[in-house]
Write a structure and sequence with these properties.
Elements: H1 6-12, H2 14-22, E1 24-28, H3 33-44, E2 48-52, H4 77-88, E3 93-97, E4 99-102, H5 110-114, E5 118-121, E6 132-135, H6 140-152, E7 157-160, E8 172-176, H7 184-195, E9 202-206, H8 223-241
Parallel strand pairs: 1-2, 1-6, 2-3, 4-5, 6-7, 7-9
Antiparallel strand pairs: 8-9
Helix pairs in contact: 1-2, 3-4, 3-8
């Protein structure tokens, strides 16, 4: 056993650590919450990570995203995350997919074509190759598509609810979507999951009342996405070694 994972083995045991080495986790969205998820999973010893995100690092990401530095501005987020993961755990097999994922087969719009973004339909992903799916994206339609597909293919999935307009990192909880409260995104997701016949969904959400801001774009801090991401990573690891 490498010295790198000795402290982890002390807590979970050799057999559980071997499970992590063999696990393959797909993370959709690697900016805020997702960036902390992949960092923690890499440090835990997860053997393979697939990173899916079409975005690039911007200056506005510097206040809250672990992959955002002045050196990475303008770079593709999944490529930055891949480089960081491999610097932490060189044995991790990392697949970086800088693509814009559509919920279903559809033609690429001109704006995205001009931006040079590769557009991929979610139907083209084979979820059965993954041991766990993490949904850390922002759009309701995209979240639902990922969750529905994971449920159809019987792959464990965990979904991040809103972290914007929040200040309290201690307010994040793990719950079934139908047991959530307070979080506006969770309210929408409860309704939409019910419409689709989804009977259960593990999520991480905040019990903190959102702070009202006078802009459409939510406010953000460095510690709430980090807290949510670490809680999600913890749940993934616990489920993988159960």
């Amino acid at each position: 056993m490498k010295e790198q994972f000795q402290r982890t083995e002390m807590l979970i045991g050799k057999a559980a650590l071997e499970k992590l080495f063999k696990a393959h986790v797909a993370v959709f969205g690697v900016g805020g919450v997702g960036g902390y998820v992949v960092e923690a999973l890499a440090r835990a010893g997860v053997g393979a990570l697939t990173l899916v995100d079409h975005d690039v690092v911007s200056e506005s990401n510097l206040n809250r995203q672990i992959i955002a530095t002045h050196d990475t501005i303008g770079k593709c987020k999944v490529e930055v995350a891949k480089e960081r993961i491999l610097s932490i755990n060189p044995d991790c097999e990392v697949t970086a997919m800088p693509v814009f994922v559509l919920p279903r087969e559809a033609k690429a719009n001109e704006e995205k074509e001009e931006a040079g973004q590769e557009i991929v339909a979610l139907d083209s992903f084979d979820f059965t190759q993954y041991d766990y799916i993490v949904d850390a994206i922002d759009t309701v339609a995209g979240k639902l598509a990922i969750i529905v597909k994971a449920k159809q293919e019987d792959v464990p999935v965990i979904s991040s609810m809103g972290t914007g307009n929040k200040m309290d990192p201690s307010a994040f909880r793990v719950a079934d979507i139908f047991e959530t409260s307070v979080c506006p995104l969770a309210k929408v997701m409860r309704k939409e999951c019910k419409k689709r016949g989804i009977e259960s969904l593990k999520v991480v959400y905040s019990t903190e009342e959102p702070i009202k801001v006078n802009q459409r774009t939510p406010g953000s801090t460095s510690f709430t996405p980090a807290a949510a991401g670490l809680v999600i990573a913890s749940e993934v690891v616990k489920d993988l070694i159960a």
